[in-house]
User: Which sequence fits this backbone?
Protein backbone atom coordinates (compact mmCIF):
# COMPACT_ATOMS: atom_id res chain seq x y z
CA UNK A 1 0.00 0.00 0.00
CA UNK A 2 2.75 2.46 0.97
CA UNK A 3 4.80 1.57 -2.10
CA UNK A 4 1.76 2.13 -4.30
CA UNK A 5 1.07 5.55 -2.80
CA UNK A 6 4.74 6.49 -3.15
CA UNK A 7 4.83 5.71 -6.87
CA UNK A 8 1.43 7.37 -7.34
CA UNK A 9 2.55 10.62 -5.71
CA UNK A 10 5.59 10.73 -8.01
CA UNK A 11 3.76 9.93 -11.25
CA UNK A 12 0.28 11.41 -10.82
CA UNK A 13 1.47 15.01 -11.42
CA UNK A 14 2.68 13.95 -14.88
CA UNK A 15 -0.81 12.74 -15.76
CA UNK A 16 -2.32 16.01 -14.49
CA UNK A 17 0.14 18.09 -16.53
CA UNK A 18 -0.85 16.16 -19.64
CA UNK A 19 -4.53 16.71 -18.80
CA UNK A 20 -3.92 20.44 -18.26
CA UNK A 21 -3.08 20.77 -21.95
CA UNK A 22 -6.67 19.84 -22.74
CA UNK A 23 -8.45 21.81 -20.00
CA UNK A 24 -7.74 24.46 -17.37
CA UNK A 25 -10.82 23.65 -15.28
CA UNK A 26 -9.69 23.25 -11.67
CA UNK A 27 -12.40 20.73 -10.81
CA UNK A 28 -11.54 18.46 -13.70
CA UNK A 29 -7.82 18.66 -12.95
CA UNK A 30 -8.47 17.81 -9.31
CA UNK A 31 -10.58 14.78 -10.27
CA UNK A 32 -7.88 13.79 -12.72
CA UNK A 33 -5.28 13.97 -9.96
CA UNK A 34 -7.38 11.73 -7.68
CA UNK A 35 -7.97 9.28 -10.51
CA UNK A 36 -4.25 9.16 -11.32
CA UNK A 37 -3.36 8.60 -7.66
CA UNK A 38 -5.88 5.76 -7.41
CA UNK A 39 -4.79 4.15 -10.65
CA UNK A 40 -1.05 4.27 -10.06
CA UNK A 41 -1.42 3.17 -6.42
CA UNK A 42 -3.62 0.21 -7.35
CA UNK A 43 -1.38 -1.04 -10.16
CA UNK A 44 1.86 -0.58 -8.22
CA UNK A 45 0.40 -2.08 -5.05
CA UNK A 46 -0.74 -5.14 -6.98
CA UNK A 47 2.72 -5.64 -8.52
CA UNK A 48 4.54 -5.21 -5.20
CA UNK A 49 2.20 -7.60 -3.36
CA UNK A 50 2.99 -10.32 -5.89
CA UNK A 51 6.76 -9.82 -5.59
CA UNK A 52 7.86 -12.00 -2.68
CA UNK A 53 10.60 -10.64 -0.42
CA UNK A 54 10.81 -7.25 -2.14
CA UNK A 55 10.63 -5.25 1.10
CA UNK A 56 13.32 -7.38 2.77
CA UNK A 57 15.58 -7.13 -0.28
CA UNK A 58 15.14 -3.36 -0.47
CA UNK A 59 15.90 -2.94 3.23
CA UNK A 60 19.27 -4.62 2.81
CA UNK A 61 20.47 -2.10 0.24
CA UNK A 62 22.38 1.03 1.25
CA UNK A 63 20.77 2.98 -1.60
CA UNK A 64 17.32 2.58 -0.03
CA UNK A 65 17.63 6.14 1.34
CA UNK A 66 17.31 7.42 -2.23
CA UNK A 67 13.57 6.75 -1.95
CA UNK A 68 13.30 9.86 0.24
CA UNK A 69 15.50 11.93 -2.08
CA UNK A 70 13.99 11.01 -5.45
CA UNK A 71 10.85 13.18 -4.97
CA UNK A 72 13.04 16.30 -4.95
CA UNK A 73 13.50 15.79 -8.70
CA UNK A 74 10.16 17.57 -9.08
CA UNK A 75 11.29 20.60 -7.10
CA UNK A 76 14.67 20.76 -8.83
CA UNK A 77 13.00 20.35 -12.22
CA UNK A 78 10.65 23.28 -11.67
CA UNK A 79 13.51 25.48 -10.48
CA UNK A 80 15.51 24.47 -13.54
CA UNK A 81 12.69 25.38 -15.92
CA UNK A 82 12.17 28.74 -14.25
CA UNK A 83 15.91 29.53 -14.24
CA UNK A 84 16.01 29.01 -18.01
CA UNK A 85 13.40 31.73 -18.42
CA UNK A 86 10.55 29.38 -19.33
CA UNK A 87 7.21 29.87 -17.62
CA UNK A 88 5.76 26.48 -16.58
CA UNK A 89 1.98 25.94 -16.35
CA UNK A 90 0.51 27.57 -13.25
CA UNK A 91 -0.48 24.23 -11.76
CA UNK A 92 3.10 22.92 -11.95
CA UNK A 93 4.31 24.57 -8.75
CA UNK A 94 1.46 23.15 -6.68
CA UNK A 95 1.98 19.68 -8.12
CA UNK A 96 5.73 19.89 -7.47
CA UNK A 97 5.13 20.81 -3.83
CA UNK A 98 2.67 17.95 -3.30
CA UNK A 99 4.92 15.45 -5.04
CA UNK A 100 8.10 16.58 -3.26
CA UNK A 101 6.75 16.77 0.27
CA UNK A 102 4.39 13.79 -0.01
CA UNK A 103 7.00 11.68 -1.76
CA UNK A 104 9.67 12.55 0.80
CA UNK A 105 7.59 11.45 3.78
CA UNK A 106 6.31 8.34 2.03
CA UNK A 107 9.87 7.54 0.95
CA UNK A 108 11.10 7.87 4.52
CA UNK A 109 8.32 5.62 5.77
CA UNK A 110 8.93 3.06 3.02
CA UNK A 111 12.66 3.01 3.75
CA UNK A 112 12.04 2.61 7.48
CA UNK A 113 9.57 -0.21 6.94
CA UNK A 114 11.83 -2.14 4.55
CA UNK A 115 14.89 -1.81 6.81
CA UNK A 116 12.91 -3.04 9.81
CA UNK A 117 11.74 -6.11 7.89
CA UNK A 118 15.26 -6.80 6.69
CA UNK A 119 16.67 -6.55 10.22
CA UNK A 120 13.99 -8.88 11.58
CA UNK A 121 14.86 -11.45 8.91
CA UNK A 122 18.63 -11.27 9.49
CA UNK A 123 18.37 -11.41 13.29
CA UNK A 124 16.59 -14.75 13.35
CA UNK A 125 18.86 -17.00 15.40
CA UNK A 126 21.48 -14.27 15.98
CA UNK A 127 23.51 -14.11 19.20
CA UNK A 128 23.34 -10.85 21.18
CA UNK A 129 26.32 -9.74 23.30
CA UNK A 130 25.27 -6.40 24.80
CA UNK A 131 22.60 -3.72 24.54
CA UNK A 132 22.55 -0.06 25.54
CA UNK A 133 20.33 2.98 25.10
CA UNK A 134 21.78 6.43 24.48
CA UNK A 135 21.14 9.78 22.89
CA UNK A 136 23.47 11.61 20.54
CA UNK A 137 26.27 13.48 22.37
CA UNK A 138 25.19 16.86 23.74
CA UNK A 139 27.04 18.90 21.10
CA UNK A 140 25.26 17.07 18.28
CA UNK A 141 21.88 17.45 19.97
CA UNK A 142 22.40 21.19 20.22
CA UNK A 143 23.48 21.37 16.57
CA UNK A 144 20.34 19.52 15.50
CA UNK A 145 18.00 21.73 17.51
CA UNK A 146 19.79 24.86 16.36
CA UNK A 147 19.54 23.82 12.72
CA UNK A 148 15.82 23.14 13.04
CA UNK A 149 15.22 26.54 14.63
CA UNK A 150 17.24 28.37 11.97
CA UNK A 151 15.52 26.47 9.14
CA UNK A 152 12.09 27.25 10.63
CA UNK A 153 12.83 30.95 11.13
CA UNK A 154 14.31 31.35 7.63
CA UNK A 155 11.37 29.48 6.10
CA UNK A 156 8.74 31.64 7.82
CA UNK A 157 10.70 34.79 7.00
CA UNK A 158 10.81 33.76 3.35
CA UNK A 159 7.04 33.38 3.19
CA UNK A 160 6.58 36.80 4.84
CA UNK A 161 9.03 38.41 2.40
CA UNK A 162 7.14 36.94 -0.55
CA UNK A 163 3.82 38.28 0.80
CA UNK A 164 5.21 41.78 1.37
CA UNK A 165 7.45 42.03 -1.70
CA UNK A 166 5.83 40.04 -4.46
CA UNK A 167 8.84 40.56 -6.75
CA UNK A 168 10.88 38.31 -4.45
CA UNK A 169 8.78 35.22 -5.19
CA UNK A 170 11.80 32.92 -4.75
CA UNK A 171 11.83 33.70 -1.03
CA UNK A 172 8.60 31.78 -0.57
CA UNK A 173 10.40 28.54 -1.40
CA UNK A 174 12.70 28.88 1.62
CA UNK A 175 10.09 27.15 3.76
CA UNK A 176 11.31 23.88 2.19
CA UNK A 177 14.45 24.21 4.35
CA UNK A 178 12.33 23.18 7.31
CA UNK A 179 11.32 19.95 5.58
CA UNK A 180 14.92 19.24 4.61
CA UNK A 181 15.88 19.37 8.28
CA UNK A 182 13.01 17.12 9.39
CA UNK A 183 15.04 13.86 9.32
CA UNK A 184 17.32 15.30 12.02
CA UNK A 185 14.43 15.99 14.38
CA UNK A 186 15.00 12.74 16.25
CA UNK A 187 18.58 13.54 17.23
CA UNK A 188 17.48 14.42 20.77
CA UNK A 189 15.73 11.07 21.28
CA UNK A 190 17.59 8.00 22.59
CA UNK A 191 18.47 5.09 20.31
CA UNK A 192 18.92 1.47 21.33
CA UNK A 193 22.12 -0.26 20.20
CA UNK A 194 22.51 -4.03 20.17
CA UNK A 195 25.83 -5.73 19.45
CA UNK A 196 25.17 -9.12 17.81
CA UNK A 197 27.26 -11.65 15.95
CA UNK A 198 25.67 -10.65 12.61
CA UNK A 199 25.94 -6.89 12.95
CA UNK A 200 25.18 -3.73 14.88
CA UNK A 201 21.46 -3.19 15.43
CA UNK A 202 20.21 0.38 15.86
CA UNK A 203 16.64 0.81 17.02
CA UNK A 204 14.43 3.89 17.10
CA UNK A 205 10.68 4.06 17.71
CA UNK A 206 9.00 2.03 14.94
CA UNK A 207 12.35 1.45 13.23
CA UNK A 208 15.05 -1.21 13.43
CA UNK A 209 18.18 -1.29 11.30
CA UNK A 210 21.14 -3.65 11.16
CA UNK A 211 24.60 -2.96 9.78
CA UNK A 212 27.06 -5.82 9.12
CA UNK A 213 30.40 -5.57 10.92
CA UNK A 214 32.21 -5.30 7.59
CA UNK A 215 30.92 -1.72 7.41
CA UNK A 216 32.77 -0.71 10.59
CA UNK A 217 36.48 -0.15 11.14
CA UNK A 218 36.93 0.74 14.82
CA UNK A 219 35.50 2.48 17.84
CA UNK A 220 36.61 5.41 19.98
CA UNK A 221 35.76 6.17 23.62
CA UNK A 222 36.11 9.85 24.51
CA UNK A 223 35.22 11.84 27.63
CA UNK A 224 31.76 12.53 26.19
CA UNK A 225 30.93 9.84 23.66
CA UNK A 226 31.28 6.28 22.42
CA UNK A 227 31.84 6.47 18.66
CA UNK A 228 31.65 3.53 16.25
CA UNK A 229 33.54 4.45 13.08
CA UNK A 230 32.53 3.23 9.59
CA UNK A 231 34.98 1.57 7.24
CA UNK A 232 34.43 4.21 4.53
CA UNK A 233 34.52 8.00 4.93
CA UNK A 234 31.09 8.76 3.46
CA UNK A 235 29.09 6.75 5.99
CA UNK A 236 28.24 8.55 9.23
CA UNK A 237 29.63 7.29 12.52
CA UNK A 238 27.31 6.11 15.30
CA UNK A 239 27.73 8.34 18.34
CA UNK A 240 26.34 7.64 21.81
CA UNK A 241 26.40 9.98 24.77
CA UNK A 242 28.79 8.30 27.20
CA UNK A 243 26.75 9.34 30.21
CA UNK A 244 23.66 7.54 28.89
CA UNK A 245 25.30 4.10 28.59
CA UNK A 246 24.35 2.10 31.67
CA UNK A 247 27.06 -0.58 31.36
CA UNK A 248 29.87 1.15 29.52
CA UNK A 249 32.46 -1.54 30.28
CA UNK A 250 30.28 -4.27 28.75
CA UNK A 251 29.69 -2.18 25.63
CA UNK A 252 33.40 -1.47 25.15
CA UNK A 253 34.30 -5.10 25.79
CA UNK A 254 31.81 -6.33 23.18
CA UNK A 255 33.03 -3.83 20.57
CA UNK A 256 36.64 -4.76 21.28
CA UNK A 257 35.78 -8.42 20.80
CA UNK A 258 33.89 -7.86 17.55
CA UNK A 259 36.01 -5.22 15.81
CA UNK A 260 39.23 -6.94 16.80
CA UNK A 261 38.19 -10.24 15.24
CA UNK A 262 38.55 -10.62 11.47
CA UNK A 263 35.94 -13.37 11.54
CA UNK A 264 33.25 -10.78 12.24
CA UNK A 265 34.54 -7.79 10.24
CA UNK A 266 34.91 -9.91 7.11
CA UNK A 267 31.21 -10.75 7.04
Assistant:
Amino acid sequence: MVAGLYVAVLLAPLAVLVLSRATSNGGILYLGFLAAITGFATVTGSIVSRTSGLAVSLGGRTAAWLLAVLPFVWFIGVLGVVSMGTEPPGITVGLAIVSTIGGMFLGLFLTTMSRTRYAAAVLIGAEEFVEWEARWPRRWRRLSLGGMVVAGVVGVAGVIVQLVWSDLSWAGNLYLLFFLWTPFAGATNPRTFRVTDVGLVVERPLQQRIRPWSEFASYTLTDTALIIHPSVWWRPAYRSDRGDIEDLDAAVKALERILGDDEYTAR
Q: What stands out?
A: The first strand starts at residue 128 and ends at 134. The two ends are 34 Å apart (CA to CA). The mean pLDDT is 86. DSSP finds ten helices and seven strands in the chain.
